[in-house]
Design a protein that fits this description.
The chain is of the alpha/beta class. Helices cover about 50% and strands about 10% of the residues. It has 17 helices and ten strands. Helix 1 crosses helix 14. The radius of gyration is 22 Å and the shape is globular.
């Protein structure tokens, strides 16, 4: 039976409330005092993260490697604030009030007196290890050391310090000054008071928090990777990106996987001459088709950034895959892309990397544009039933063992159980 709008809304509200509850964390756990926040990196993510704190009234020190990069980053921040003021969201004088909370610096050592520092540089483990080694030597005792990594092993990052109990993941979503979700990633040695402080801080900067564990991609991106792999497999069979996107748009996503890739930039994680597991993307990048920023990626783009199906991309897909162009029903595309997300979410719960099924739904509703009428991957799993998900995963698992059905999925199908009621013991580090 399809749930009513009221039932779905009630579930989402309860899920959002439950996400703030951390079992095993004493409500009386003392919090660390946060007055000054340090941000490493003034790029898109760093600047956006910094805005959250400045907007909430915190003093922010922001560090870049060059004066030029620092000036550029602060100019973008000012521009964002000015556009908001121009739209009447706050008075003009508030622009200067917020900008006055920023203190731009060029040395990590200048962050020594900050109560919280958030690293927001690009996704390179060697660089992050280097930064945390330096932070360990310069930051004051009791400071919280956070990384904004979206997928890397935070335990490995924390191991570069003599205070792993002070290290936590604060994974903001782009644009960080707009997106509501904050994945708070508890590492193996993260102290209770660091968790408590981070959860409280999320509320103060007007975010919706979900506490998750360390695994590749954490909760949100790990599930996203599963969808993207299946979407890429469809291209390998001769489907066009716009057909896949159209099916996901029909499901309720404002952007499909390839529209989203073009927006983010196809060259993320790619370098010239590189050969990756995504040869179609590699070829597009080699042709300088890197997404919206170059007016060409999987799609061609006009001056209004309107996506247009591309004959160039169609030719690349045929050349790379050898597959003749083909079609597939939207219903089947949705199953192939969505059901693996549900299966991956179940595996996350089996591995105790999320507190509860509804937290996974909170992550996807608030960080990835999951359509509200379908309540999140776990809720939607209950809408279609475990048996339907299992049937599809049996087929996909036969093609690729990485997509074998989760054991808990098999049990749900056998017993008629619900995804939203899975209880594997919660988050364990």
């Amino acid at each position: 039976m399809t749930p009513t709008i009221e039932e779905t809304g009630d579930y989402i509200a309860k899920a959002g409330k439950a996400a703030w509850e951390v079992p095993g964390l004493d409500a009386k756990t003392p919090q660390r005092e946060i007055k000054t926040v340090g941000i490493i990196g003034a790029g898109t993510m760093g600047g956006g993260i910094a805005m959250n704190f400045a907007t909430a009234g915190y003093d922010v020190k922001i560090v870049e490697t060059t004066q030029e990069a620092l000036d550029r980053g602060l100019k973008v921040v000012r521009g964002n604030y000015q556009r908001s003021a121009d739209k009447g969201r706050f008075p003009q004088e508030e622009v200067e009030a917020r900008m006055n909370r920023f203190d731009g610096r060029l040395e990590l050592a200048d962050l020594a007196d900050c109560d919280l520092v958030i690293e927001a540089v690009f996704e390179n483990m060697d660089l992050k290890r280097k930064i945390f080694t330096e932070l360990d030597s310069v930051m004051k005792k009791g400071a919280i050391l956070a990384t904004n990594t979206s997928a890397l092993d935070i335990n490995e990052i924390a191991a570069m310090t003599r205070r792993p109990e002070d290290v936590i993941g604060l994974h903001f979503f782009s644009p960080a000054n707009v997106m509501k979700l904050l994945e708070i990633v508890r590492a193996e040695h993260t102290a209770d008071d660091v968790v408590a402080t981070s959860m409280a801080l999320a509320q103060k900067i007007n975010k919706i928090a979900a506490l998750v564990g360390v695994c590749p991609g954490f909760v949100g991106n790990r599930i996203l990777f599963a969808r993207q792999i299946q979407a890429n497999k469809l291209l390998a069979k001769g489907l066009m990106p716009w057909d896949v996107d159209a099916a996901l748009n029909q499901f309720g996503f404002k952007m499909g996987p390839f529209q989203m890739s073009d927006l983010a930039g196809l060259d993320i994680g790619w370098s010239k001459g590189a050969t990756t597991e995504n040869p179609i993307r590699d070829m597009l990048c080699e042709m300088d088709r890197r997404g919206q920023k170059t007016q060409a990626g999987f799609y061609d783009y006009d001056e209004n950034r309107r996506p247009i199906p591309s004959d160039v991309t169609a030719g690349i897909i045929k050349n790379v895959t050898g597959a003749e162009p083909t079609t597939m029903s939207a219903e089947e595309i949705i199953e192939i892309c969505i059901y693996p997300m549900i299966n991956e979410a179940v595996k996350i719960l089996e591995e105790n990397k999320a507190q509860r099924p509804s937290d996974i739904d909170v992550v996807w509703l608030n960080g990835y544009g999951w359509p509200a009428d379908k309540g999140g991957p776990m809720y939607y799993g209950d809408m279609v039933g475990a048996q339907a998900v299992l049937d599809r995963m049996e087929k996909l698992g036969a093609e690729d063992a990485a997509f074998a059905p989760a054991e808990t999925l098999r049990k749900l199908a056998a017993t008629g159980g619900k995804f939203t009621e899975i209880d594997t013991g919660g988050l364990k580090v």
